[in-house]
Each structure stands twice: as C-alpha cells, then as structure tokens.
Amino acid sequence: MRQRKLAASAAALTVMLAAPLVGSATAGAAGQTVTGQATASAVPAVHEQAAGEVVLNVDYQVQETGYWCGPAAVRIALSARGIHRSQADLAAELGTHTGGTDWIGQVTRVLSGYVGWYETKEMPNDPPTQAQKDLLWRDIVLNIDNNYPIVANIVAPPGNQPPGYPPDQTIYHYFTVIGYNDVDRTVLIADPASFGGNQIYWLTFDHLASLIPPKGYSA
Predict the structure, then answer these.
(1) What are the Peptidase C39-like domain coordinates in residue numbering (predicted)?
(2) What is the reported pTM?
(3) Burial category of 130 from C-beta neighbours within 10 Å (exposed 0-12, middle 13-18, buried 19 and up)
C-alpha cells in the first residue's frame, strides 16, 4: 500500500463553474454521448456550505464531445490541484476513442501520473457489499479532505439515474466527486454531461454506491 502525504482540509472552498455546453444524450459503450449546440449560461459561482459539508474548488467544464466524459471528469479532478489540461490532451493520454474510455484504470494512470496519490478501486458486486460501500465512503472523505477529487465510472440504467438523465436509456459515464456532507451522508457531483442542465448536484451516498458497480473509481 502506498503512503499518502496528507494536505490541509479542503473545508469552506468554493466551486467555480465555467460556461456550460448543453446538449441531449444517447448511451455509449464506455461513456455517454452528448450532442447539441454549445450555449453559454450564467451559473452562480458561490456555493453556500451547510453543516458537515466539505466542498473542493474545481474548474468545471462540460465534455466537449459525446465520448469525452472521461477526459472531462479527469480535467475537473486535476483542476482541484491547480493543473489545467485540455480535454483533447487528456483524451489522447487516456486512450479515449469514439466509444469512450474503456476502463477506470486508464483514468487512474493519468491522474497518478500528474499528482501521484490515486489508486483504482473496483466494485464488481451489484449491489455492492457493505465492505465495498464502507471503503467507498472512507475514500471519499480521505480524498476530499486532502483536496483530491474522485473520478467514478458509473452505469445508470432506467430507474436508477442521477437527475436529468435520459430515463429510457442506460448511460455509461464518468463523473467527478468533489464534496461530501457527513451529517446527511450525501456527495457532491461535478457531472460533465450536464443532462438537463444538471452540472453540480448532490446525491445520497447510497445512490452513488449503487451507480458504480460493476465498474470502479479512482481515489
């Protein structure tokens, strides 16, 4: 097991949002497809923190192609560390193709190449075991407290989806976990798909844990 150098708590930081791209979606093999015209809209830059919240400062972008959810999620994660790379550069580094980014290990390799720290955590059981859920929560708290967002590879079928997702499709996707609340056990998601304009939103921890299997996450 690697050693991790602990950084200062990330409490009370602000989520910074870039102008979004808004589009419709269809499912892809390793990452969802987003189509439509780029449009700019004003998004509040200040996130008021409630009791128990820890939220990281990130530079949010909507994915620039229908299959760049992986590169966009990695870009959001790296921005918390002050590293700013284009989605195109990250797509090349990840080996992303028109079907998406095949495996969470590719995400871990790129993230750790820039900042160290990251490991691949698999969640093959659906539903996840209690041990897998406990590890996921510990990883979220440890990562966010030390200013390392988590990138999760998810599968969102009809009936079990984040807000705004196409309800008649199974979406294979990457998004970034940028905060948590240990009072109500919720997690803050930076979602590069922007389905229905939902870009930064809260999910219950149990909902997140149900979305990751049989994939994994980088933490």
Answers:
(1) 56-193
(2) 0.81
(3) exposed
